[in-house]
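Hi everyone, sorry if this is the wrong subforum. Our group has a chain we'd like a structural model of before ordering constructs, and none of us has done structure prediction before. Sequence below.
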Amino acid sequence: MRIGSLEFSPRILPTLAVVALLPLLTSLGLWQLDRAAEKQVLQTLLQERLEKPAEHITKAGDLAADMTFRQTILDGYFDPKHQYLLDNRIYRGQTGYSVYTPFSLDMGKSWIMVNRGWIAAARDRNKLPDIEVSGEKVRLEGVLGLPPGQLMQLAAPDPDSSNSWPQRIQNLELEQVGRDTGLRLHDYVLHLDASSEHAYQQDWTPYVDTPQKNHAYAIQWFSMAVVLLLIYIGLNTRRLKRPLPQNDEEE
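Answer:
Right subforum, don't worry. Here is the predicted structure as tokens:
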């Protein structure tokens, strides 16, 4: 293909490489844009729900709906016999635990884990903090969210530890908690309001990752696609030599 004095003559190997890589780079950029759009929707949802007043939930069945980031009031009972200490939680440079306690608003038919906040760990790792809580009826207010993210765990939990309470754990896995306790758990966690008398130092804040990072990644992938295309065109384009003018004079 000629354009003026330039001729584009693609070779087979560079063409195959571009055919393979260009759609891949473009699709990666589009995927990052989709991820950015999803995060923007979650950010908007978070802001809208936190601006609404707390909703008083009286039926456990209402927890089956989409309740993420909703401010909620629950009336019910703690299970003081089955409490968990989520290990290796850092607050202001100090190591400690996040305290999780089951809570029921339907007289024990179903339960939701309550994040009661952070408590410092003792220097002696064999000494666990006192996290005793009343089993009497109480009212809780907080924000519903998903369980905390999973950390890398080098070894499986000790099965004999299920007989010792409170349990010290590396990850809060609701399915495992249900097996340990025999309780039917909802998928959400109630992050207890810091003003509650049952809360420790509450270091949890609702957070959704911003889409800016995904936008930056998308620009990188699209830029690589453009650079690849420019290199391909440059390597396969040559300037045609102009024919020398003919001399009609005979010597």
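For your construct planning: The longest strand covers residues 94-104. Residues 2-41+211-239 form one domain.
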